Amino acid sequence: MVTALVLLNVDRDKVNEVAEQLAGQAGISEVYSVAGQYDLVAIIRVKDNEGMADLVTKHLLKVRGITRSQTLIAFQVYSKHDLETMFSIGT
Questions:
Q1: Which CATH number, 3.20.20.210, 3.40.50.300, 3.40.50.720, 3.30.70.920, labels domain 2-87?
Q2: In this structure, what DSSP letter does residue 12 have?
Q3: Quick one: which H or E segment has residue 6?
Q4: What does pTM read for this prediction?
């Protein structure tokens, strides 16, 4: 499984429309509307690097309203849930 966070700048009048289009794409598990430097953050989870390349370079480029993007590939995930499972001795 390959995971990426895609930080997106979007035309102001298209934020909701772009978010909905992205959320409907296979491989995009979540889309967040955020405050700050970026407008949206899309979480991508795909099987392999080829799937990531296909989704980012072919499908995201077709979504009108995206003005700029930055893709961050995740190397490892750390979450409270994973840590609790790893160190749980059972009850």
A1: 3.30.70.920
A2: G
A3: strand 2-10
A4: 0.83
Query: In sequence order, what are the residues at sequence separation of 6 or more whose Cβ sits closer than 8 angstroms to the Cβ of residue 77?
Result: 3
Determine the residue type at 58: K
Query: Using an 8 Å Cβ cutoff, are 9 and 65 in contact?
Result: no
Is residue 86 within a helix (H) or strand (E), and if so which, with residue range? helix 80-87
Tens-of-pLDDT digits for all 91 residues of the chain?
Answer: 999 999 999 999 999 999 999 999 999 999 999 999 999 999 999 999 999 999 998 898 889 999 999 999 999 888 776 555 556 565 5
